[in-house]
Amino acid sequence: MNIHEYQAKEVLKGYGVRIQEGIVASTPEEAHEAAVKLNAQTGTSWFVIKAQIHAGGRGKGEIKETGSRGVVLAKKLEDVKEKSAAILGGTLVTIQTTAEGKKVNKVLIAEDVYYPGASEPKEYYMSILLDRATGSNVIMASTEGGMDIEEVAENHPEKIIKEWIDPKIGLQGFQARKVAFKLGLSGTAHKEMVKFIGALYAAYIGTDSSQFEINPVLKTSDDKILAVDAKVNVDDNALYRQPKLAELRDLAEEDPLEVEAGESGLNYVKLDGNVGCMVNGAGLAMATMDMVKLSGGEPANFLDVGGGANATSVEAGFRIILKDPNVKAILINVFGGIVRCDRIANGVVEAYKSIGDIRVPIIVRLQGTNAAEGAKIIDDSGLKVFSAITLKEAAERVKAAL
Ligand code: GDP
Ligand code: MN
Fold first, then answer.
1. Relative to the alpha carbon of 107, which ligand is closest?
2. Residue nearest to atom 23 of ligand 1 (CA)
3. pTM summary value
4. 127 and 43 in one domain?
5. Is the pLDDT at 310 greater than 90, yes or no?
6. Share of the chain above pLDDT 90, in %
7. Is the pLDDT of residue 1 over 80?
8. How many angstroms separate the first and last alpha carbons of the chain?
9. Which residue of 54, 115, 389, 397 pairs with 253 in a disulfide if CB–CB is 3.0 to 4.6 A?
10. Poorest-confidence range of 179-183, 209-213, 369-373?
11. Same domain, yes or no, for 210 and 299?
12. Is 359 exposed, middle or buried (0-12, 13-18, 19+ CB in 10 A)?
């Protein structure tokens, strides 16, 4: 689960990570009030207005309706309201969103931390993630912060520092010092970076996250180290023991079909193709998607209705698949092991009748216990549903339907 920058910064702050302070706002008036408050709290007179969406690249992104960038600087308190109005309610398109972009419902009014001083402010990159290959956590850092890190990884892999951390032992002091040293830091900035890394790692572990990305981490002109941006991805499987984090979920940022499927207990992932798939079991679902591709189609989704598929779950799956306008055919591929095929067939027919007005052909492949009885129920239903027993038959049916 992803959370917004303003939420992530609050969470990090709770673990002692220094952040660029800010106050979230939903209207231009609130944005102005936030700036007044922030000025009282931090003394800042320049403000950064940051669109809150679950995607990066906002600084270079553009609001479709107004042409504003997704991150803008206001050098006067009086400008905050108008500049926020050009972002709030608009559609932000960045390299990480689709071409349609994402609606901005909130902005973060943040203090300007790039103020002049004894040294130049300098941007770094830092992330912590799970490295499945080594079964450990890895801190990645770079002096090339603020920019597209994928580009750095591609063209200058030597500029990415990696430090692996054994989760059983935890981050050791020397490891944090090593990273700070490799980033070229000394003196106060080095000490601050070591503290920053320690707090960041504690936050990563404490929140059961699978990925943190802080880009940029800023060294201010007076040698403070702080998080200017924060991308936090919490492991969905840990949400049951992270109730406070679970509350931060923003459904407006998620695919509505995936949210609906989650509520019905279905394992659904929306894809871009034209053949809707409903399958019991994740492995069979993957194989079915391969089969759809081989028959010339593209899967419109991954949908695992689970081992105990019944008329209710089949109907819920149907409804979700049918809401996707790209779907030209639906393939149901169920192995009747625990559930008998005749029961699934009845479930399909019931769901079909209950939904009514289904305009796309449905191919049902039932295999396993009572497969022949199941096929007969489908064939006798008089509905636009076709049965298939072998995978090959099902593939041919799909091909004919496209
Ligand atoms: P992203 O583009 O979605 O990754 O958003 P970021 O939070 O990383 O902000 C984008 C850019 O805005 C940063 O790389 C900075 O260059 C700039 N920025 C952020 N905060 C400040 C600030 O306090 N002052 C100034 N002058 N620029 C800032
Ligand atoms: Mn960023």
1. 1
2. 112
3. 0.84
4. no
5. no
6. 72
7. yes
8. 35
9. 54
10. 369-373
11. no
12. exposed
Q: Select from 228, 231, 232 the residue to mutate for testing ligand 1; criterion: most ligand atoms less than 8 Å from CB.
A: 228
The minimum-distance atom of ligand 1 relative to the CA of 20 is 23
Q: Please give the full DSSP string across 117-184, using - where no structure is assigned.
A: -SS--EEEEEEEEEETTTTEEEEEEES--SS-HHHHHHH-GGG-EEEEE-TTT---HHHHHHHHHHTT
State mean pLDDT over 5-16: 98
Confidence of residue 233 (pLDDT cuts 50, 70, 90): very high
* 64 and 149 in a common domain: no
User: Is residue 181 located within the same domain as residue 233?
Assistant: yes
* Among 77, 111, 145, residue at a domain's last position: 111
Are 90 and 28 part of one and the same domain?
A: yes
What pLDDT shows up at residue 70?
A: 98
What mean pLDDT is predicted for residues 293-322? 86
Q: What is the CA 350 to chain-centroid distance, rounded? A: 35
Question: How many domains does the chain contain in total?
Answer: 3
Same domain, 180 and 306: no
Task: Report strand pairing: 91-93 vs 102-103.
Answer: antiparallel
Closest CA to 295 of 395, 210, 207, 224: 395
- The closest-lying atom of ligand 1 relative to the alpha carbon of residue 5 is 7
Q: Using CA positions, which residue lies closest to atom 7 of ligand 1?
A: 229
Amino acid making up residue 391? L
Q: Which residues are within 8 A (CB) of 191 and not within 5 positions of it... i.e. 6 or more apart?
A: none
Residue of 114, 147, 212 to test ligand 1 pocket, by largest number of atoms within 8 Å of CB: 114
pLDDT tens string 331-367:
999 888 877 888 888 888 988 888 888 889 999 998 8
Catalytic residues: 125, 213
Q: What residue ranges line ligand 1, CB within 6 angstroms? A: 20, 48, 50, 56-59, 71, 73, 112-114, 146, 215-216, 228-229
Give the domain-ending residue among 195, 211, 246.
246
Distance from residue 353's CA to the centre of ligand 2 (Å): 50
pLDDT digits 0-9 by tens, 183-220: 999 999 999 999 999 999 999 999 999 999 999 999 99
Q: Are the C-beta atoms of 182 and 191 separated by less than 8 Å?
A: no
